[in-house]
Amino acid sequence: MEISRLMPVLGGVATRRLLVNVTSRRALDEAVASGLLVRVNRGRYAVPGVHEGTELALKVTGHVCLVSAALSHGWKVKSVPDVPQIAVPKDRRIDDATRSRMEVIWADLGDDQVEGLATDASKTLEMCGRRLPFDEALAIADSALRDGFPRQDLLDLAGAAKGPGSARLRRVAAHADPRAANPFESVLRAIAIDVAGLRVEPQVRVRGALDLDVRPDLVDRHLKIVLEADSFEWHGDRAALRRDARRYDLLVVNGWTVLRFAWEDVMHDQDWVRSVLTSAVERTQRARRADAPA
């Protein structure tokens, strides 16, 4: 797959190792040379909007924020914004030509809330939690925790929040989990959280008969339901396909319901995904009631 089509699936940020594995060294070098990718820190590359955002922030004396700031911190995101998101002081005037190149967020930021030309990690998480849809904010929060942002700091930040969006921020903080592998999995978990009766956790170890010993993407231990975010990142050859087939078969014969979801459906057809999850929960609950002793 071409890198320009690959990066949105990978969350807008990827390591050199992963990019080389799924494309080639030559493809990566060409993408960097042509401006399709920019290096954000050692061994990590992002979409070019990261650099464009800092240039625009400098021009309007503002700061990169929201999803654009998350990308500048090297965090993975559900979707890359079409134009950089820039926080600008409320009294700042911007000409129409410049404004058309960015999404303006009117906000007065303190010196302790910025880092260079972007909002710092804490302010980025706060703004994302308050303003973004739950699945987008959860993907960013998961990535931040995975990258080393302390979970307790996120909980403290949310607990102290007041005003518009504070309840949304607290919900994101309560569910954020560094065990989530990528935005694909985070968004699938966000959908599952809204399904009544379903309680999934990421990367839970499952053991059973016939040497079953796996860590599926998402697991509901009580209902014995497994959700898998099927991505080409881990299915690149016949050996990987065989391993996956075996693990799914072993889960099924051990009494687990296994649901596999494609990236396109999780990102772009969430109503369908939610309906499948709801039906699976209802089916499992009906079967348990039928098997219960009279």
Description of the structure:
- 50% of the residues lie in helices and 16% in strands.
- With 294 residues, the chain is an alpha+beta fold.
- The protein folds into three domains: 1-46, no CATH class; 48-175, no CATH class; 183-291, 3-Layer(aba) Sandwich (Endonuclease, Chain A).
- The strands form five sheets. Strands 9-12-13-14 form a four-stranded mixed β-sheet, with helices on both faces.
- It holds the Pfam family DUF559.
Summarize the structure.
The chain is α+β, with helices and mostly antiparallel strands and 294 residues long. It contains 14 helices and 14 strands. This is DUF559 domain-containing protein.
Structural class: alpha+beta
Total domains: 3
What gross morphology would you assign? globular
Share in β-strands: 15-25%
Q: What do the pLDDT scores average to?
A: 93
- Residue stretches low in confidence (pLDDT < 50, at least 5 long) are none
Radius of gyration: 21 Å
Largest sheet: 4 strands, mixed
Output the number of helix runs: 14
* Count of DSSP strands: 14
Please give the order of strands in the largest beta sheet.
Answer: 9-12-13-14
* Proportion of residues in helical segments: 40-55%
Quote the distance from N terminus to C terminus: 56 Å
Element string (H = helix, E = strand): HEHHEEHEHEHEEEHHHHHEEEEEHEHH
Domain DUF559: 217-275
Pfam families: DUF559
Protein name: DUF559 domain-containing protein
